[in-house]
């Protein structure tokens, strides 16, 4: 029998049933084998929920990235990577006697049925998407109440990207009337926060400067909400635009046998404007 060199000669290589290569049972078995205390992978064995959580977030972002780039050939692999994160967490929970993958599936299946009474229950399906969103939020509010989440902001996950969490906190507060009447009021607040940021910069207190910068970002997220803009999507678009234009600078310099470090700000700024003009032509 072939030996697994990573495990040493005393441990024969594990064999996974490949009868059904598309079945979830195969993936569950692979994860269990990787976490086996005696024959598993040392890295996988050492992990816990906290150490794996950043990878879970990263894989979710990579799924979103593949979709944004319309890289449909990459999407199955990225979704598989994200699914593995769910399997990994479920395996660790199972080992700790907390729950297993079956309970994860049961939980989400039940939740989807409960949150769609117009599909799986007696409610009429004849409603707008907007009404469905309102109904969805009402059902979620009942779920939070059942979990003893009494505060308006309870249940907004701490692990969300900060910009997304800001938006969710503001949406929750707005539902109970704590909100500016419109975008004009938010713009006034942005001007106020900008002045406070300048004052904080001049004070030399870096902690205060960081606080004021956060306040400005928070209000910017609120402006996005009032303008019906997804701030994460807007920033992703800005990142992509910056990347395109900076690469155009690199290409223009490369045509003369140079790199950005061989140039200067004035020249690169001119090349940036050239790239900007070319995009708008």
From TrEMBL:
<dbReference type="InterPro" id="IPR048015">
    <property type="entry name" value="NTP-PPase_MazG-like_N"/>
</dbReference>
<keyword id="KW-0378">Hydrolase</keyword>
<dbReference type="InterPro" id="IPR004518">
    <property type="entry name" value="MazG-like_dom"/>
</dbReference>
<feature type="domain" description="NTP pyrophosphohydrolase MazG-like">
    <location>
        <begin position="47"/>
        <end position="120"/>
    </location>
</feature>
<dbReference type="Pfam" id="PF03819">
    <property type="entry name" value="MazG"/>
</dbReference>
<dbReference type="GO" id="GO:0047429">
    <property type="term" value="F:nucleoside triphosphate diphosphatase activity"/>
</dbReference>
<protein>
    <submittedName>
        <fullName>Nucleoside triphosphate pyrophosphohydrolase</fullName>
        <ecNumber>3.6.1.9</ecNumber>
    </submittedName>
</protein>
<dbReference type="InterPro" id="IPR011551">
    <property type="entry name" value="NTP_PyrPHydrolase_MazG"/>
</dbReference>
<feature type="domain" description="NTP pyrophosphohydrolase MazG-like">
    <location>
        <begin position="186"/>
        <end position="245"/>
    </location>
</feature>
<dbReference type="InterPro" id="IPR048011">
    <property type="entry name" value="NTP-PPase_MazG-like_C"/>
</dbReference>
């Amino acid at each position: 029998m072939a030996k697994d060199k990573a495990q040493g000669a005393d441990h024969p290589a594990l064999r996974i049933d490949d009868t059904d290569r598309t079945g979830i049972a195969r993936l569950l078995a692979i994860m269990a084998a990787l976490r086996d205390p005696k024959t598993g992978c040392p890295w996988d064995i050492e992990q816990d929920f906290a150490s794996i959580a950043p990878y879970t977030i990263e894989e979710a972002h990579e799924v979103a990235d593949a979709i944004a780039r319309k890289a449909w050939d990459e999407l199955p692999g990225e979704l598989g990577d994200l699914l593995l994160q769910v399997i990994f967490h479920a395996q660790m929970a199972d080992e700790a006697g907390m729950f297993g993958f079956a309970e994860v599936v049961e939980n989400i299946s039940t939740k989807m049925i409960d949150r769609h009474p117009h599909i799986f229950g007696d409610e009429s399906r004849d409603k707008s998407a907007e009404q469905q969103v309102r109904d969805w939020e009402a059902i979620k509010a009942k779920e939070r109440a059942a979990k003893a989440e009494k505060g308006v902001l309870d249940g907004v996950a701490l692990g969300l990207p900060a910009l997304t969490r800001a938006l969710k906190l503001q949406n929750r507060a707005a539902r109970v009337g704590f909100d500016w009447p419109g975008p004009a009021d938010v713009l006034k607040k942005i001007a106020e926060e900008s002045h406070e940021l300048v004052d904080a910069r001049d004070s030399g207190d870096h902690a205060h400067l960081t606080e004021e910068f956060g306040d400005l970002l928070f209000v910017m997220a609120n402006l996005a909400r009032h303008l019906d803009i997804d701030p994460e999507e807007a920033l992703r678009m800005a990142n992509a635009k910056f990347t395109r234009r900076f690469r155009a600078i690199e290409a223009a310099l490369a045509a003369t046998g140079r790199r950005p470090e061989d140039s200067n700000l004035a020249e690169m700024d001119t090349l940036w404007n050239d790239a900007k003009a070319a995009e708008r032509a």
